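Database export, one record per block. Field names are fixed; values are copied verbatim from the stored entry.
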Amino acid sequence: MNYRSRQIDTLAFALTGYQADIDGKDKYNLGYPRHTGQNYEERGRQFLAVRGQKVQLETGQPPLVTDTLDRAALLKSIHYDDWNELHIVAKGNNLKHYINGTLMAEVTDNDAVHRSMRGKIGVQVHAGPPMKVEFRHIRLKKL
């Protein structure tokens, strides 16, 4: 799920911005979701906080991990072969990703040069062979 994103004029249907990830098929044969819950900046700074991290971002600096969450415990909150509830709280420069009520990643983006405080919302489907992606009950609430 992309949020606070900008459309890219040179690529059809492409956005750049924050992204709350949810894995689909286990293409890495890990037996668990690899990216679900993380904060990734599509076509930007890339991995901002992987699942289990609380991160602070500053201009010109790599992400600073300020706290970690129990990654093994977080996996127990993810429904791997069923519906998951994604809850994104983007309040000011603080971005939190919850899966099924459990905080998965948190970013405090102090990078005034690259952060985004507003933008488009989008759902992602990767390029490649045909696939099925389903979303339901999408709700927005202004904070």
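Remark 1: The helical segments are 71-75.
Remark 2: Residues 2-122 form a domain with the Jelly Rolls fold (CATH 2.60.120.560).
End of record.
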